Amino acid sequence: MHGTAQQHCLVVEDLLMCSDTQHVGSGGKDWVPLRLVWAAPDKRSSSSSSSRQHGSHASGSSSGGGSSGGGGSDRAGEPNRPGLDPPVQPVRLPVVIFLHPTGANMSSEHHKQESYAAAGYLAAAIDCHHHGERCAAQDFFGGASRGVYNDALVRAWRTGPERPFLLDNVWDIVALLDYLETRPDVDMARIGITGTSLGGMHSWLAAVVDSRISVIAPTIGVQCFKWAVDHDRFQGRVSSIQPLFDAAAADMQKRTVDAAVVQAVWRKLMPGLLDHYDAPMSLPSLAPRPLLIANGELDDRCPMEGLQEALRLTQAEYERVIREQQPSLSEQELSTAVAGRFQLYVEKFSGHRETSGMNSAVRQFMDKHLLNAGL
Fold it and tell me: pLDDT of 154-172, one tens digit each?
């Protein structure tokens, strides 16, 4: 059971979210640690309760974010007391979901959550499968937890039925969206998602399967898996989860990890990826929702050369959809409209690392489409 803390006018709410309501209690994987951060209402509105309406998707204690000097009720479920103004409907906030990279946990995103919350967002983060509180063994640097994650990947390759690399986490994000829909302080028309590396992949694919995500901005995560296999450029990605591919090579009686091993792993852990939802097929499906892809120019895990066809197809689809929606646009107006919704940020001379430039680009993109939409 988790609770709520208020720090520097920000409310931090830690919850456990159930991602599998049909099999609750069947294992720890059903419960997802979730952290929400938002700005406490100022003193002028603090006389009103802002209790949370939690459904069956989450458990944890909660309190409103009112100022301590307001004199009103700040605890969920506390009845109104005579002499106080009746509760007002909470302001519905835009949401940004933050997803962490391999070997980290949701706490690595907390500084971003605080920054966004101070600007008027409700910022959400979760622990991915076999990370953070969902990992039995942890150390300060994430080394032990990374070993647990690698073990889970090998187990999924050999026995299944888990899909711990990408698909199980996409399921959790869908469950998070279900939970957010139950909150009276969430504007479901303004949901953004971003993530780094592994989290970037999660944010990309979650947006593909769930249109409730309205703004998408993955960093160092978007790539073409099939292109890497076909062009012998998979080594960078393989090295990020090397024990999995070493185990697969051994099981396939291969002396080294070759394209056949990589293809077999992707087909087992992510069925259908190479043929149906790799970047060239899935990125165009996001049109016309605002999409920013932030990658490094020299990233060997997400080679830019491998993305060119996907980017071309996505650009064409944004042009087609926006033209269909606004047939009176001139060519220049169409180009401007597409550029506002589909953007690529490439950090020069950068490999597989998150940069301040990427984070700034993501923040500006989110603000434009979630905070300043319609202005």
Answer: 999 999 889 999 999 999 9
